[in-house]
Amino acid sequence: RGIKMLNDAIKVTGELRITLTNPEGNIKQEVVVPNLVVTVGKNFIASSMVKTTTNSPAAMTHMEVGTGTTAAAAGDTALQTAVASSRVALTSATVTTNSVAYVATFPAGTGTGALTEAGIFNASSAGTMLCRTVFSVIKNKWSTASRLYYINFST
User: Can you list the alpha helix ranges (DSSP code H) found in 20-120?
Assistant: First the structure.
């Protein structure tokens, strides 16, 4: 008698919600785009299931924006063209049922320009990228921007 393997496929998907507000807090623009959880991000998720003091990866802690326009691909490990000094600490990370919501707020003057990509990382520089999203140009010059990533797990 052998051990019968149970095969239960879990799909990891996500979306990015970007909200630009003016100095008074009024919403100027809101965009929702699909997100790609990259291969190293999926490996991060799998490694997180084995909690030991020697091999557990650091938690996702930062979001970064950039100006790259190449489509997100499973093999991506960094943004194509990160904007200098645009990696900011997450303001929250919340687990609800089968999803995780990562929120970062970019103050006015941080991550400015014609932005077209964003990613979630587990370090303030370098580190592991969980996901990458490429989107139509969003101009963020004098606005405060909140970015909310949803990572969903489903079968």
Answer: 39-48
Strand partners, 21: 27, 144
The model's pTM is 0.86
Query: Beta strands of the chain (E only): which ranges?
Result: 11-21, 27-37, 62-66, 88-89, 92-96, 99-106, 113-121, 129-140, 144-154
pLDDT in tens, 77-86: 999 999 999 9
CB 89 within 8 A of CB 81: no
Among candidate residues 118, 132, 59, the one with its CA nearest the CA of residue 93: 59
Instruction: Give dist(CA 100, CA 1) in Å, integer.
Output: 40
